[in-house]
Design a protein that fits this description.
The chain has helices spanning 19-31, 57-74, 90-99, 130-134, 140-143, 165-174, 187-195, 229-242, 260-264, and strands at 3-8, 38-39, 50-51, 54-55, 78-83, 104-109, 155-158, 177-179, 201-207, 244-251. By secondary structure, the protein is an alpha/beta fold. It has one domain (3-268): Arginase, Chain A (3-Layer(aba) Sandwich). The strands form two sheets. Strands 2-1-5-10-9-6-7-8 form an eight-stranded parallel beta sheet, with helices on both faces. It has a two-stranded antiparallel sheet with strand order 3-4. A hairpin with a 2-residue loop joins strand 3 (50-51) and strand 4 (54-55). The termini are close together. The relative contact order is 0.17.
Length: 272
């Protein structure tokens, strides 16, 4: 089994602040000391414009394609991504979904659904569109590069609590599984949600805004009502012990000098 570690500090998928650029580097150094990362570099300062309803599309789309092509050449079995915004997930998830022929459950620990399109997004920020793009309904530059779009039944949203109306409608129409913050108190629930769909591989996405803000305050989009740190950590560990891990990630750490990194290291105890 080969593993590729990506350091992908792209902030342009949010576009209003570059704090997650430094945050990604800080997470990589603190949580994976001595690990050799493949750097997907992005300018730490850049003027962005809106095109086709997406802020910074001319910056993020070429970087996505380059990263996807690079993964296709290196062909790792597992991809670990430490990133800036959720938008960086497009390349590793698209690659792994090809690599495993769609036999990949994507468990999305996130306060948000990230299921908007350029037409429904209130902000035009790509980090709120990345899952919908992976489903094949996003900017053309992304969708055209994906050989195998994700299917709705591959998704399990965890800790999700802040949805736009169009996202809620999409979830209901397509039967996407949602594990609420309170349900994460029982790890067997999320394990069962994945197992019932028959998948053997999982991709574990963790946006730091999934957590209760008092537990992990240094996140880009603090969102009230999240699960305690211990519940997310226990669910994450239960999933890793129950399924083969095709990939995992940590994103949206706004490096403000807090103590969040000390706690986050525990997410990767007994790492694969």
């Amino acid at each position: 089994m080969t593993t590729e570690y990506l350091l992908y500090p792209e902030w342009q998928g949010y576009g209003l602040s570059s704090t997650v650029y430094d945050g990604a580097a800080a997470m990589a150094l603190a949580l994976f000391p001595g690990t050799k990362f493949t750097l997907v570099d992005s300018p730490p300062a850049e003027q962005l414009r809106i095109r086709d309803g997406v802020l910074g599309l001319d910056s993020i789309a070429p970087r996505f394609r380059q990263t996807l092509d690079r993964l296709r050449v290196s062909a790792p079995d597992v991809v670990v991504t430490v990133g800036g915004t959720c938008g960086v997930e497009a390349a590793p998830v698209a690659y792994l979904n090809e690599r495993y022929n769609g036999n990949l459950a994507i468990v999305w620990f996130d306060a948000h659904g990230d299921l908007n399109t350029p037409g429904t997004s209130p902000s035009g920020h790509f980090h709120g569109m990345v899952l919908r793009t992976l489903l094949g309904d996003g900017p053309l530059e992304y969708v055209a590069a994906m050989r195998r779009p994700v299917r709705a039944e591959q998704l399990v949203l965890a800790g999700t609590r802040d949805l736009d109306p169009a996202e809620s409608e999409y979830i209901n129409q397509h039967g996407i599984a949602v594990v609420s913050p309170s349900e994460l108190a029982h790890p067997e629930g999320i394990v069962g949600a994945v197992r019932s769909r028959g998948f053997e591989q999982i991709y574990l996405h963790v946006d730091l805004d999934c957590f209760r803000p008092d537990d992990i305050p240094d996140t880009l989009m603090q969102t009230a009502g999240g699960p305690p740190f211990e519940h997310v950590a226990a669910a994450h560990l239960a999933l890793r012990r129950s399924f083969r891990v095709g990939g995992l990630s940590l994103v949206e750490y706004a490096h403000r000098g807090g103590r969040s990194l000390e706690r986050l290291g525990k997410i990767f105890q007994d790492e694969t």
